[in-house]
Amino acid sequence: MPKSARKQEKDPDGRMPLAEHLRELRNRLLKSVLAIVVISAVAMWQYPAIAHFVTGPVIDAVGCPDTAAGLGPRTHPCAQVTANGLLAPFTIMLKLSLTTGLVAASPIWLYQFWAFLAPGLHSHEKKYALTFVGAGAPLFLGGAYLAYAVLPTTAGALVGLTPSEWTNLFPADEFLDIVTRMVIVFGLAFELPLLLVLLNLGGVLSGRRILGWWRFMVLGITIFSAIATPTGDPLTMCLLAAPIVLLFFGAVGICLFNDRRRQRNNPDAELSDDEASELDLTPAPVAEIEPVASHRMLPEQASGDSGKDEPPRRNGYDDVT
């Protein structure tokens, strides 16, 4: 592995030549890709357990009973997960392993991304970036867990619409695509409140302005949930939209609190660059007048002597005053 460019030549301001930046980017990308490949290889070795973890809740919710095991026929509609084609099990194993490696290696490649950007950031920008990384990961995991938790309920509601004389077959590759899309969509949607808070901390948006957009935000979140959910059913849409709306109002409360704190520290904090601040025109009390000592006169002024071309002086002054 090549040495990091910043280890060869350090600059207190984080400045580097273009070639060193490209070498540093290459090293960071190699480390990230290596971590994803290693974890994907381990996931491929544990593929049956991971596949059962992903599909198990849905199969338990809507799976058809095994008649060979002595279980009677199911009275309500059920479904079976199938692998269509000779190469389907292999491609599904690769897809699931790579997805697992990408998600499980996220702390590593996020750190590499942060380490590449950190030297070029100011101190307050580093603080905001650390806040984003520290709060973004739990929010993303919370959205992903919500998608995983509501998927059996959603599948049961959709399968329940099947007529009794029909049979449902879930192609495994399509089913895993739906699971992956739901996890990613739910996880990214939970990052919206964090983005609003960071824009407020950076002084881009005020809490009052964000609160004034609440009608459009609720409508936009609802439309986004209807489009982004792979299943397209109202239940999943509501389960996605409701937490995001609650997180949005929670972010508005944080922004308003931050604006109030900023207003106490700086009354002109919310003014734009081309807006003049209010001036305090209240007259201030005048302090007591201090006596000022007179300067000592020059010798020629004290004696009254003057030049030929100058007017005569009296008591050091050049006129009768």
TrEMBL record:
Keywords, sorted A to Z: Cell membrane, Membrane, Protein transport, Translocation, Transmembrane, Transmembrane helix, Transport
Membrane-spanning intervals of the chain: 29-47, 96-117, 129-151, 178-199, 211-228, 234-257
Signal peptide segment: none
HAMAP family for the chain: TatC
PANTHER family: SEC-INDEPENDENT PROTEIN TRANSLOCASE PROTEIN TATC, SEC-INDEPENDENT PROTEIN TRANSLOCASE PROTEIN TATC, CHLOROPLASTIC-RELATED
Subcellular location: Cell membrane; Membrane
InterPro entries registered for this protein in UniProt: TatC
Record membrane topology: Multi-pass membrane protein
Positions of the UniProt region annotated as Disordered: 265-284, 290-321
Domain of life (superkingdom): Bacteria
Gene: tatC
Species whose genome carries this gene: Streptomyces celluloflavus
Pfam families assigned to the protein according to its UniProt record, in alphabetical order: TatC
Biased composition (Basic and acidic residues): 306-321
Reported function: Part of the twin-arginine translocation (Tat) system that transports large folded proteins containing a characteristic twin-arginine motif in their signal peptide across membranes. Together with TatB, TatC is part of a receptor directly interacting with Tat signal peptides.
Record protein name field: Sec-independent protein translocase protein TatC
Family as reported in the entry's similarity comment: Belongs to the TatC family.
Keyword set includes Transmembrane helix: yes
Subunit structure of this chain's protein: The Tat system comprises two distinct complexes: a TatABC complex, containing multiple copies of TatA, TatB and TatC subunits, and a separate TatA complex, containing only TatA subunits. Substrates initially bind to the TatABC complex, which probably triggers association of the separate TatA complex to form the active translocon.
